[in-house]
């Protein structure tokens, strides 16, 4: 999966905006939005929030978890624990990137948030590499991956799955008479 | 003018195994996204969902027809257009990933289609079936005209290489309905098989073969 497709899914998350225009309710196929009144907070999907922001029609309210104190706590916990800790949003990385790139003027301490989220991400990816390594070296057949986000899975997906498939082919070719090991490609 | 856009989209009824499933358009889009991810990540071609695809197409055409009546530069219309583009992207990506699998495994796909019992639902939509057959004929004609007819007579037949999807590939999945006692086969001869319970909401990495039936029932979602 392309990272941009994961970002596409993240854009469905809901974020609060403060519009500076007024508009009746919009009846979208995926649900109703609005009504929009100047100064009144309203919840919209991120894709719409970013579009309105680019047209200077709204101010984006940062999600509750996008806060220096809360993120520091999460970072410290993530460093302390050996397993993956719960993340504040299933799309924390994508949302941070999207919102900070397009609406950093609406988000106080944007730079600190960026660094903190990057720290959390780096810690988690390091853990992910370690566990992928032990998964392969112990030849496991099942792994539980709670608290991993789609973006994190996606960074390791093609490499990990391809390696596992290659190892499977090599191993089944070792057993003589086994037809299961035939190459799947032509 | 605004009336054209204030269309809530009435509920869609879908006849499925004789029973009526009533879905809201929002649920329909949710289903499309699930099917998209499942199709993207499963090694084999999944059941066709032509009914769902038709419903989505209907919604899109309906909305586009409404938008035709709106003057240019309307704010609401631009929001609707953006949504339509997003849905269309998912829909095309879904259909494209099916076509990619068909092109890769066409002899296998056709064989499976032939050996299917009369009552069973087809894996291919009528359009996909026509495409697969045409793809097979075209490949055969191409091989003949480029190489086979220049071969000695006894070598002029070709058995299409049967590429099969590798069901033993690993997949990532999220559990939607709790499952008990899923058998995990060992990787090596020294290991023993064991069972796991899949808790609702948990995520796993395991072989596709083990959980393939759960994907089609919707109990697990590939991610």
Automatic annotation (TrEMBL), chain A:
<dbReference type="GO" id="GO:0000727">
    <property type="term" value="P:double-strand break repair via break-induced replication"/>
</dbReference>
<comment type="similarity">
    <text>Belongs to the GINS2/PSF2 family.</text>
</comment>
<keyword id="KW-0235">DNA replication</keyword>
<dbReference type="InterPro" id="IPR056784">
    <property type="entry name" value="PSF2_N"/>
</dbReference>
<feature type="domain" description="DNA replication complex GINS protein PSF2 N-terminal">
    <location>
        <begin position="2"/>
        <end position="61"/>
    </location>
</feature>
<dbReference type="InterPro" id="IPR036224">
    <property type="entry name" value="GINS_bundle-like_dom_sf"/>
</dbReference>
<comment type="function">
    <text>Required for correct functioning of the GINS complex, a complex that plays an essential role in the initiation of DNA replication, and progression of DNA replication forks. GINS complex is a core component of CDC45-MCM-GINS (CMG) helicase, the molecular machine that unwinds template DNA during replication, and around which the replisome is built.</text>
</comment>
<comment type="subunit">
    <text>Component of the GINS complex.</text>
</comment>
<keyword id="KW-0539">Nucleus</keyword>
<dbReference type="InterPro" id="IPR007257">
    <property type="entry name" value="GINS_Psf2"/>
</dbReference>
<dbReference type="InterPro" id="IPR021151">
    <property type="entry name" value="GINS_A"/>
</dbReference>
<dbReference type="GO" id="GO:0071162">
    <property type="term" value="C:CMG complex"/>
</dbReference>
<dbReference type="Pfam" id="PF25005">
    <property type="entry name" value="PSF2_N"/>
</dbReference>
<dbReference type="GO" id="GO:0000811">
    <property type="term" value="C:GINS complex"/>
</dbReference>
<dbReference type="Pfam" id="PF05916">
    <property type="entry name" value="Sld5"/>
</dbReference>
<protein>
    <recommendedName>
        <fullName>DNA replication complex GINS protein PSF2</fullName>
    </recommendedName>
</protein>
<dbReference type="GO" id="GO:0006260">
    <property type="term" value="P:DNA replication"/>
</dbReference>
<feature type="domain" description="GINS subunit">
    <location>
        <begin position="65"/>
        <end position="168"/>
    </location>
</feature>
Automatic annotation (TrEMBL), chain B:
<dbReference type="InterPro" id="IPR021151">
    <property type="entry name" value="GINS_A"/>
</dbReference>
<comment type="similarity">
    <text>Belongs to the GINS4/SLD5 family.</text>
</comment>
<dbReference type="Pfam" id="PF16922">
    <property type="entry name" value="SLD5_C"/>
</dbReference>
<feature type="domain" description="DNA replication complex GINS protein SLD5 C-terminal">
    <location>
        <begin position="165"/>
        <end position="223"/>
    </location>
</feature>
<dbReference type="InterPro" id="IPR036224">
    <property type="entry name" value="GINS_bundle-like_dom_sf"/>
</dbReference>
<dbReference type="GO" id="GO:0000811">
    <property type="term" value="C:GINS complex"/>
</dbReference>
<feature type="region of interest" description="Disordered">
    <location>
        <begin position="1"/>
        <end position="20"/>
    </location>
</feature>
<comment type="function">
    <text>Required for initiation of chromosomal DNA replication. Core component of CDC45-MCM-GINS (CMG) helicase, the molecular machine that unwinds template DNA during replication, and around which the replisome is built.</text>
</comment>
<keyword id="KW-0539">Nucleus</keyword>
<keyword id="KW-0235">DNA replication</keyword>
<dbReference type="InterPro" id="IPR008591">
    <property type="entry name" value="GINS_Sld5"/>
</dbReference>
<dbReference type="GO" id="GO:0006261">
    <property type="term" value="P:DNA-templated DNA replication"/>
</dbReference>
<keyword id="KW-0158">Chromosome</keyword>
<protein>
    <recommendedName>
        <fullName>DNA replication complex GINS protein SLD5</fullName>
    </recommendedName>
</protein>
<feature type="domain" description="GINS subunit">
    <location>
        <begin position="77"/>
        <end position="146"/>
    </location>
</feature>
<dbReference type="InterPro" id="IPR038749">
    <property type="entry name" value="Sld5_GINS_A"/>
</dbReference>
<dbReference type="GO" id="GO:0000727">
    <property type="term" value="P:double-strand break repair via break-induced replication"/>
</dbReference>
<dbReference type="InterPro" id="IPR031633">
    <property type="entry name" value="SLD5_C"/>
</dbReference>
<dbReference type="Pfam" id="PF05916">
    <property type="entry name" value="Sld5"/>
</dbReference>
